[in-house]
Design brief:
- By secondary structure, the protein is α/β, with parallel strands linked by helices.
- It has one domain: Response regulator (Rossmann fold).
- The protein contains six helices and seven strands.
- It is globular and about 40 Å long.
Length: about 130
C-alpha cells in the first residue's frame, strides 16, 4: 500500500503558543506543516519547499500577512491562502481577498473552521458565512 501524500502547508504566526497549537492541529489533519514566526525565514524556505496551502497571521514582526502573501506570489506561489487575525475589519477582509486570500478567519476561531476552509480551497470566501465580506 502506497503512503498517503500529505498536503504541504506554510504556517506564519508570530505567537509561539498559537503557532504550535495550529501546527499540531494541522499535522493531525494530515498536513505537512512548516511553521515560522515571521515572513522572512518562511520566504527563504520557498527556495527548497513548495506548499500547496498557507495560513498567515495578519500582524507579523516583519510586516503583515498581506505583504507576506504578495511576496509569495511574486516568486510564483499560487496555492490556497488563509489569513488569520485578531484585528478583523471589513476593509481588511476586502484588501485580503483582493490580494488573493481565499478566506479571512477572525481569532479566536474553531479548529474545524480552519480545517474546513483549507480543504475547500479558493471557493471558501464565497461559501463560508463568517468569511464573507
Amino acid at each position: 500500500m502506497a503512503a498517503e501524500t500529505k498536503a504541504r502547508l506554510l504556517l506564519i504566526e508570530d505567537d509561539a503558543g498559537v503557532r504550535r497549537s495550529l501546527q499540531l492541529l494541522l499535522q493531525g489533519e494530515r498536513f505537512e506543516v512548516h511553521a515560522f514566526a515571521s515572513a522572512r525565514p518562511a520566504l527563504a524556505e520557498m527556495a527548497f519547499w513548495q506548499p500547496s496551502h498557507a495560513v498567515i497571521d495578519y500582524r507579523l514582526p516583519d510586516g503583515d500577512g498581506i505583504q507576506a502573501l504578495r511576496a509569495l506570489q511574486a516568486i510564483g506561489w499560487n496555492g490556497t491562502a488563509v489569513l488569520i487575525t485578531a484585528f478583523d475589519t471589513q476593509d481588511l477582509r476586502k484588501t485580503a481577498v483582493d490580494a488573493g486570500f481565499s478566506a479571512v478567519l477572525s481569532k479566536p476561531f474553531a479548529d474545524s473552521r480552519l480545517v474546513e476552509t483549507l480543504r475547500r480551497g479558493p471557493a471558501t470566501m464565497a461559501s463560508t458565512p463568517s468569511a464573507t465580506l
